[in-house]
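Hi there,

I know you've been waiting on this one. I reran it after we fixed the sequence typo, so this is the corrected version. Both the input and the resulting structure follow.
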Amino acid sequence: MLASPHALPAQELGEALHLRPQLPVRDPSAHVAHRLAIGRFTAARLEVENGLLPAALARLQKVLFATKDHELALVVRLRIARLQIGLGKPDEAMASLAAVEPGAFAGRYAEVRGDALWAKGDHPAALKAYKEAQAALGGAPEGDLLALKIGSP
């Protein structure tokens, strides 16, 4: 059973903001740029909730190319991949995920990679990715959803 590609956990944004270093006070332009990125990120979420997937994808791609915040970029790339799957473009999602080293988001990247593989019909590879995600996430609450995906026929 796949999670909706439209589901965009707010926890990921919280994790990115928690992981990113504090912006120096002496650089107000970086602070403004970060706030602008968060605003665009939120607007994209509203577009997804209203079924405007292509618009949300375009907005997130702008955030990705504009942000200098590495952790925020990782979360944005993850959401871009989910939207690409939702738009029937699993190969593009795979390319989006493979373009960077996910670091602390390795488990989430593995899960979305599994979703893309499942969408392509490569169920054995998807199962392998889900198990990789499950191992990386450990006892995180997302493990329950992964268990359902792993148990999917």
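Quick highlight: Residues 28-49 form the longest helix (22 residues).

Best,
R. S.
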